[in-house]
Design brief:
It is a single chain. This protein has 206 residues and is of the alpha+beta class. Helices cover 16% and strands 44% of the residues. It contains 4 helices and 11 strands; from the N terminus they run ααββββββααβββββ. The protein has an 11-stranded antiparallel beta sheet.
Amino acid sequence: MLNLRRGAFLVPLASLLLSACATLPSQGPGKSPDSPQWKQHVNEVKQVQAFQTRGAFAYISQRQNVYARYNWQQSASDRYRLILTNPLGSTEMQLDTQGQTVQLVDNTGKRYISNNATKMISELTGMNIPLENLRQWMLGLPGTADSFTLNDHYQLRTATYQQDGQTWHVTINDYKQDVTPALPADLELTAGNLRIKLRMDSWKLQ
């Protein structure tokens, strides 16, 4: 069992991360998902196959609170690496996927192999993360969401997704404007009492 499940780490990030969206400007009524501007934005985002993004991660539930720095490196649509680190910069978890093969290395160096990243993370850390759709939401794409809305800039604002009887509500509070196309800077997922937040400090497109 990974230490992630036994308690929180990188606690000083909590207040900064959870209050990040409090200062964001209010959003207007948004634009239509049928608009050509949205379709153009989607096409541009789908061209982003290789990238790196760093920032802060928070997982808050009734059972555990986890706060970490994250580093997400994707070299192809089916190949990526996710690293979670503690305040000292030590790796708490490294997840590597290549096609249908998933490998997770914990903070003791122990390796686990699976063909289902979401299930493996849940079993080893206790964190319920809709990873496949999260990979789309973090780019500002709706994934397999049941419904979604846009902001005034024809970018994804909210989405609703149901999985295994659980309803996820997705909110993108802000976008990074220093990359083209613009990509999310503040993402929040909620499902009942569960809350997941990602704050993207930087994006590097390759």
